[in-house]
Amino acid sequence: MKLYYHPISSYSQKTLMALFEKGCAFEPVLVNLMDEKAKEDYKKIYPMGKVPFLRIEEKNWSVPESSIIIEYTDRHFPGGTKLIPDDPDLARQVRMRDRFFDLYVNDPMVKIFFDGFRPEGQRDPYGVQQAKDRLDTAFAMIDQEMAEKSWAMGELFSMADCAVAPALGYCRMIYPFTKHKHIVAYMNRLAERPSFQRVLKEAEPYLTAFKK
Ligand SMILES: N[C@@H](CCC(=O)N[C@@H](CS)C(=O)NCC(=O)O)C(=O)O
Q1: Count of Cβ atoms closer than 10 Å to residue 190 Cβ
Q2: Which residue CA neighbors atom 16 of ligand 1 most closely?
Q3: pLDDT tens sequence across 142-195
Q4: Which residue has the CA at smallest separation from atom 12 of ligand 1?
Q5: Which ligand 1 atom is at minimum distance from the Cα of 9?
């Protein structure tokens, strides 16, 4: 199976972290989102142009969306970390947290991150303020939740942790959460996870080049 991705894309990082947790083999295909020609070529594979995207040629299956790729992988590759529990109620709680982290941490983080790279006059201060307000609310909720937990689901590491790790990793740089000590401790635990370390190591040279 081929994973179309970019190393600095937070949603790609979420998926990569999950695939590394599972230890399943895949062919990585880097999509250069900074290059218009590469983006246009990629749209022939996935017209929405978003990464990550999984293609399983032998089944003629296309699997877009980070959470759905993780769901597919967790179902079809029994090895490594189980990322979505078999128990339906626990699975629902994982999915709920995954949605929360994507919509209320990752998306606002992306808004703030990319606005910073827009030329003067094309920035969106109102949208950025909305994103910051959303993050403030999300941080307060997560901090309270993480007071007595190791991972988003308690002692169980799951897809939800893969969703939030890259998003919080970027927040550390662009909208820090230092006053939320339980999130800081959670982030420190995530940073020790070999799957996340591997993701960050791969992203590092691309991030340095992107910032220049
Ligand atoms: N909901 C999607 C979000 C994917 C997404 O927004 N990816 C960004 C990179 S982090 C992207 O492909 N951006 C390029 C574009 O929008 O053209 C998921 O979970 O996979």
Answers
A1: 22
A2: 50
A3: 999 999 999 999 999 999 999 999 999 999 999 999 999 999 999 999 999 999
A4: 50
A5: 10
Spacing, Cα 51 to ligand 1 middle (Å): 5
List, chain by chain if needed, residues with CB within 6 Å of any ligand 1 atom.
9-11, 33, 49-52, 65-67, 102
Distance 50 CA to ligand 1 centre (A): 4
Nearest by Cα to 163 from 45, 62, 57, 84? 84
How far does Cα 209 stand from its chain's mean position?
A: 20
What is the share, in percent, of the chain residues with pLDDT greater than 70? 100
Q: Whose CA is nearest to atom 13 of ligand 1?
A: 50
d(CA 169, CA 6) in angstroms, rounded, equals 16
Q: For residue range 106-139, what is the model confidence (pLDDT) as tens digits?
A: 999 999 999 988 998 999 999 999 999 999 999 9
Q: Ligand 1 test: best mutation among 6, 16, 35, 50, most atoms within 8 Å of CB?
A: 50
**Phi and psi of 119, rounded to 5°?**
-70, 155
The domains located in the chain, with CATH, are 2-82 (3.40.30.10), 88-200 (1.20.1050.10)
41 neighbors 98 (Cβ within 8 angstroms): no
Can you read off the two tokens belonging to residue 161? 């942790």
